[in-house]
Every structure is written in structure tokens, then in C-alpha cells.
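Q: Hi! First time asking for a complex rather than a single chain. Here are the components, and I think there are two in total. Is that enough to go on?
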Amino acid sequence: MENPDDVIDVRLDNDDEVEDEVQDWKILKNSRNSEIIPKRGEKDFEPDGTNVQAKLIDDSREAMFEALETPRGYFSKNRLTAVWMKDEKKALVLHPRGNYFKDMGAAAKIGNNRHGVWLNEIETVYLCERGSLLVYLGNSSFVEYLESDATDFDYQGELMALTLSHLYALAFCESPDLLDQYHVYALLKRNGYLIQRYTPKEEKEIQQSSSPTLTHNITNVLAKSYSVLKQLFFNIAPCIIKQHLLAFYISSRYESLWTDFYYQKHHILSYTSLFRQLRLIPSYSASNCHLQSAENTSPYQISYNIWKPMPNFSKKNPPKPDFQVCIVNTNKISFPKVEDIRCLLSNAEISDSDYERPGETKNTKAKGKSTAQTQTKKQMREQRRKDRFNKLSEYSQKKTIYLRKRDDMLKHGTSGKSVLLAVLQDGVLNFMNLSEVDFTFRDSSRIKLDNILPKRPHEIMWHGAIES
Amino acid sequence: MEVEGEETECSMILLPLIGDRVMIFDVEDVKKLRKLGILGVLTGTLPSAPQQNVFHGIPLELGIYEVIWLVENGYGTIVDSLKMHEEVEKQSKSEMSRQNRERVIGDFTHIPNSPAVNSVHSNDPVGAVGLREFIVSRCPTNEALRALLTDYFVFRSVRQNGYQVMPGLRFGGDMIAYPGDPLRYHSHLIVRPLRGPVNLLDIVAGGRLATGVKKVWVIGGLLQEDKTKIQEITIEEESIDQILESEVKPISFSIEWAGFG
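A: Yes, that's all I need. Here is the structure of the assembled complex.
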């Protein structure tokens, strides 16, 4: 019974935990007019046999059933219909309207100049389930209509309107994996994200270069031979040399440390230089590991590209995704192996956006929303923190920013590549984030830190000033 | 068993099979299941609040153990959802347009969850799927089948002890058990069925984790004689039904992290 103008706007106090526990449906009933769902209902430890408790359970169940029984559908001003085409396993929307098609659907051109939008199984079920789309079952007379020049079609008289369970059966019965994908898709859509199916890079390239030219071929060959060379260099050479090098490296490092102490060649005056001396084990950059993924046969594949809500999203020309997600069903598959994770990450896009601290984003949102309202305790604390920060010297400010940035990179990855793992068990869904960290801060991550404070040994604990 | 269970009427709950899992679309069936203490997981979008993820709506997804339990105890029948709906498609054109008209009430167009009760409900539904068929479709190998049966017996015994069970993903177990309806109670147990020897480190990890979230970690497995019985079962045989009927009593232990001094 959704009416876009007065959709209940439910935002959460603390989304981390609310979804973990089974919530009390009475809250939903009571919060019809309020904006925020309270944190959680009161729960008991165990049954105590009292009528009071029995009544509370009954009330909660009643509230739940009442919410479940709320009719699904739309008011005529939001009318949106589609026709399910069994052969294509897609739904055709002839008169698309509303906000939904920003990221959904693909343009359709049928018969003589009939335009519309194709919705895939998942998109169709999602829109129908939220009560925004009525789906009819296509038949021969509808196909005839599509091919003809007729302008009108009697949907109600000619076609059967599908129930939600019927649509589920048509969409998912033959491909159960789609159901897992649907759960993830729907959850993210309900949170307002923009989503598109992920297409592997190679496929994209093939699509783009439908007419191969000579130059294209040459560059292709060049690129291929380059990658072969690279592989040779990075994979084979290190295998042989690495072990010897490692032994040599460690012994030489020990020796130098020892001789430094013994002969006092080098005075260790700060922790930084001590830590620097203690760097015994060589490390390598994560970005070097992705070269083996020439053939991608891993069962773990990215399913969706995801964007945070944005006003000018273009389906044809989308920006780099904010997240990419791979779906894992605990009943069918276990946690990915290192090779699979590498494979996933090698296919992941490098995101440009820096990681935002959740606290910071939340605050800007809150400010936009309620300028007139009195400050909450959280905001006051934030303000005090800012004031304190502004009082610091320029150098200390930089240092604070530097340390925060470095911590963020260690926590959330240095290469900017990450893949979300959506883990499903019988309809329960959790997310994990896989990202890669180069603890030595080489390449692009070094530049990011150098921009704040140049020429620091980013890879070690930096403790006070370093000499020379 | 739940005392409330006895109140339910004897009409069978239809368990529509979509692909490899059972999803319930009829709210009346959801109510009946709740009374039986079978919780499932609501996975659909709630039409009255479609932009949030705290409360979900129809359909209700049932786990495989829940489905086996329902069929084994005579509460439900599995039906192939596609076949069931093909029956509905066969209705006459006049009937169809009448139904279409009835769905528009004033200004509001109604999208029902599931077909009208009288068109499908019966004790001998179209497209019925046998329990063995369902189990084997989920466990194509003997090994997987035996593992599933072991897990199921643990599930069954947890239920027999009066607990209601939900998937345990969020707490790092196979299932979590509640002393009653989870709408009212916090869960007490994180359950892990065992199929072989248990790693000592797992015991520490499970015990610490469960104690950390104020629960108890429970491991359950079968006694040797039952294990042997299960080892003999293969996917080709009819013996799956027999072993489900037989008295298999798993043994379980609860583990809690305790500090000394």
C-alpha cells in the first residue's frame, strides 16, 4: 500500500545491531508516525508462566501478522504494469514511469516502434513485492498486440494478473541461485542503493569493440605479450630467487643490527630508528599478486555493482561502483580460498573515493536535517573535538590527519580494491568486507601518505622525529 | 513439543518449493507455523514500509530442517510451486477477468500474495513432492545426505526439548535456540551439530564466543549405534523415511567459558 509521497521514513539509531536480533513488531505499529524506529523492544530471559508474558507475546504476534496482512499494491495515480514473457524470462514494461528506472531495466524496442523497458527476474520481483508493479502473465494475444499497430490492449480482460507467489515460481523455480542474488539485491535496494548486474571486464571489452581494427589487434597483441612478460618476471623469477634472497636478507639484517649495536656505528636514539632496524622480514606489495588470474574459473564471482544514492546516475555510463558484492550461500559453499579471494580482488574496481569515517558522514547528514534543533550530545562531543583540533599547531594537525589516514588504510585496505561478501543462510544475510592491505605502503598508497607528510617511513611505527 | 501445537487444525500446510527451497506466501500459513513453533525467516519487502531492513514481510523462507520436521510430523506437504501455479493458469477466461476486476478496490489495485485458497488447497495437491525426493534434491551425494540427517536429528532433539530454532549465521553457529517465541525472548543456545571428532580449539572458540554474547555453546552428535545406522543409508534407498521414523537420540553437551579465581 505504498504511496511514494508518504512512505514511512524509517531510519535507524544504530543499524549495526538492530538487524541482528529479532525485533518486536509492536514497535513498527507504534512508530507509524514517528521517524525513527527505537533501538529495540524489551525482551525477557525465559518464559515465567505468567499471563502478562503470554499477553505480550500475543500482542507482538498480532502486530506482526497485522503488518504482514497489510495489502500489497498501489493507488491508481502510481499505476505501473508489466507483462511477464515466459520465453524471455523477463517482464516488459510498456509505460515506464516513476523513479525506479534510474538503475533498473534495459531499453526495449519491439515490433513497429513500440518502446518500453525490459525488467529481469530480480527487478520484476523486487518491484512487485514492494507493491509498486502489477505483473500480468503474457499470452499469445499479447504477443499479437505487440507485433501489430494497435494502440490499445485490454489487459484486464485478456491477461491474468499474477500473484506474488506465482511470480516467484516463474522467476526462480528453474534457477535457485537467483533467489540468493535476489535476497541481496532486495536488501540493498531497500537501503536505497543503486544496483546493476556486474559484467566481467573481458565481456565488456568484447561488447565495446564489436568491429575489430588493425590497431586494436596490435595493441591487443602487445598487451598480451606484455602481460606474459610481466607474469614471467613476477611469478617465475621470485620463485627461484625469493628463498635465497630471504635467507640472505634476514641474515644480513641481523648482522647489521648486531654490528650496529656492537660497534656503535649507528646510534639508535629514537624508537623510529630502532623499529627501522628491526624490520627483518621482507614484504611484498599486494598489487603484484593479481597477475596470475588469466583464467578465471573460481566459483566466487562478483554479482553486483553498487552505488550510494546519487542524483544523476546514468545506466548507460555509470561511474565507478562504490561497492561490489559476491554472494555466498553457507548451505552450498564455504569461505573462499586465497586464490579465489585474489581472483575476486583482481576483478574488483579500484575505487577512487577514500574511506569515509561513518561518524563524519552521519554528522553532515544530521546537520542538513535539523539545523534548528538543539545539538545532541554526540554533536557537542564532535564540536569539542573539532575545537581541540583547531587549537593544535599546524604540524600536529598534519600529524593527526596523517595517523588517522594511515590507520584507515590499514583497516580498510591500501589498494582501494575491496569486495563485499554477502553470506546467506536460509534467508539470513550478513556482509563481510574483503580488502587488501600493503603493510609496506608502496605505490599509490605511498603517494597518498606522502601528500600529507612526505618522506616518512610509512611502513613502521613512527614515533617522534627521525634523524636525517 | 510445544503445547500450542495441539491447537492447530488438521488441514495440511502447503509448502511451495521454489527451486531448492520452501517459501510460504499465505499469511494464514505463517500463523499456523508460528503456533507450531516453526519460525522460518521473513525475507520479503514489507509493502507498508518498503525502505528499511528491520522488519521484513512475505514470503517466509523455511530452512531444510524445518521442512523435514513439518512433513515428518504430518503438518505439511511439499508442492512444486511451478506446477501448482500452472493449475491456476488453467482457469477460464471469464473467471480470470472477474478476478482481475475484484483486485481493484476503489482507487487501490491489490496484488495478492498467493492464489485464492479454494483454487489450490486440498489434501491432495497438484505437484506434490515426496520428502525423500526433496531431501535427495538438496543432498545429491550419500555423504551430504548422511551429514544432513545427522544435523536434522540434532535439530529435532533441540525442538523436542522445547526450544524454537532459527538459523545461526549471526552468532557463528549452525542454529540458535530460543526458549519460546523469539519475539519475546533472547536466545539461550548456539547449536553446532557434530559429525566427527571435535577440535579442542573449536571448543574454546565456540565457548568464548557464546559466553561473550550471554549464550551457551551446545555441541550435539549421535551415539555410535545411530551413527552406524546412518552410515548405511544411501540416496537410492527408501530407508530415509524409516530412519526418520526411528528413535534417534543425539547426545549433546553445553560449553561455557569460565574463569578461575
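A: The CA atoms of residues 232 and 276 of chain A lie 32 Å apart. Let me know if you'd like any chain examined more closely.
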